[in-house]
Amino acid sequence: MTANIARVGIVAKQGLAAASQHLARLETWLRERRIDVVYETSTALLMPNAGAQANRSREDLPNHVDLIVSLGGDGTLLSVADRIGQAGRDIPILGVNFGSLGFLTEIRIDELYPSLEAVIAGTATYDERLMLSATATLRGKEDEPRVVLNDVVFTKGALSRMIELSVSVSGRFVTCVKADGLIIASATGSTAYNLAAGGPIVHPSVDALVLTPIAPHTLTNRPVVIPADAEVEVRPESPDGSEDVFVTYDGQYGYAVHQGDVIRVRKAKQVLRLVKAPARGYFELLREKLKWGER
Prior knowledge:
single chain; seven-stranded antiparallel β-sheet; alpha+beta; Tumour Suppressor Smad4; Rossmann fold; 18% helix
């Protein structure tokens, strides 16, 4: 039984010359199976006959394909995941890593075609990852919701010594965080900025969100794991109006927020499907990436 893959989108890390030699072969392989290929605009420029292929912007690509192959690293896959989430599409990503194994791009280049074959045949297995939906009310007006895979992060501006953030969970006040910032992460995002900030690693199958202060002023402000069906509400507090607070979404998009603004983060309605590597599990990935057991 096939998976009804009629059109495949291809996205490579911008300027990744090492991907060029694989693109033409990948296109030939897909067309031999009567599958159309659509390139992300900058990826098409890596082809020998640049500009001759069907291409779409990274934002628009998810609306025109049934599967996206991402060639690069975790950053490339993350940008594709966010575009899929923003488009509201339920299409999988096959992430191929160039270089060291990634937390998200766990398929090696030599595993690309067996993995593609399994997707087309309908025998592939998928990781379903929780995504975050964030809604901002800025100066009394509601902004467009953002859907992200990893995290929503509040940080201080260059001139701010510390920021204050009022945090509530499901309508109940939790605390006023005085810190360099605050991370709201999904289980998938727990191995990103959250890990660097001292937050816990959460297995991606766990339905949870993580709240992690960044360099908190009070050492008793510790990371907290909460149920995924909770809604987190964050309000910047600036008594003298001098503090700069920035919110960023997966490091891909962001803006300044001020006292009176509010950001609400909850589990998105949709999940992201990642094609699983044929022979590796999550703990093997952790051992390799975090070098567990090495002296």
